[in-house]
Amino acid sequence: MMDCLKNLEDEISAWPHVSIHPHRFGGRKFRFGNAEVGRMHTGAVVDIPLSRSIPDALLDQGRTDEHHWVPNSGWITFRVRSEDDLKHALGLMRLSYLRYALKTASDSRGLLEQESEDLHLNHRFPSLFEPFVPKTANVSTGPFPA
């Protein structure tokens, strides 16, 4: 399992604008600038902050659990027990990351379309990310700022 968690950390740390920091209760937290994307704790527990509508949709589909300490907070908890769980945890963490990436991307709409396809999001999810797309979103040559 430690290999899975190391793989999770390696994957997330490779995303543009992500940094890793120790978490005060043990484990690691991932940030996009000053915003927290999620945490990885000992015991293979991953905690991820999302806007309230996104966890509700994930919970409705049985894709995650309420946060283990603070339910109804917008945070979710996911336990990594297998290689398949690792892939799912990466996808959940990517949803959190996407909220911040959309705000800074040079082509927010293109990024949302690409991530929706890559993450195999059903038709409901892209609309949940609309609040994170800047109103002045324009199209350019790439999804991330230089």
Question: Please, could you describe this protein's structure?
Answer:
The chain has 146 residues and is of the alpha+beta class. The chain has a single domain (2-132), classed as Aspartate Aminotransferase, domain 1 (Alpha-Beta Complex), CATH 3.90.1150. Helices cover 40% and strands 20% of the residues. The protein contains 5 helices and 6 strands; from the N terminus they run αββββαββααα. The chain has helices at 2-13, 53-60, 83-104, 108-118, 124-128; strands spanning 18-22, 28-32, 35-41, 45-49, 65-66, 75-79. Strands 1-2-3-4-6-5 form a 6-stranded antiparallel β-sheet, with helices on one face. A hairpin with a 5-residue loop joins strand 1 and strand 2. Helix 1 runs parallel beside helix 3 (83-104) and helix 3 (83-104) runs antiparallel to helix 4 (108-118). The protein is globular. It starts with a helix and ends in an 18-residue tail after the last helix. The model has no long low-confidence stretch (mean pLDDT 80).
Topology summary:
Elements: H1 2-13, E1 18-22, E2 28-32, E3 35-41, E4 45-49, H2 53-60, E5 65-66, E6 75-79, H3 83-104, H4 108-118, H5 124-128
Antiparallel strand pairs: 1-2, 2-3, 3-4, 4-6, 5-6
Helix pairs in contact: 1-3, 3-4
Please summarize what this structure is.
This protein has 146 residues and is an alpha+beta fold. Helices cover 40% and strands 20% of the residues. The radius of gyration is 15 Å and the shape is globular.
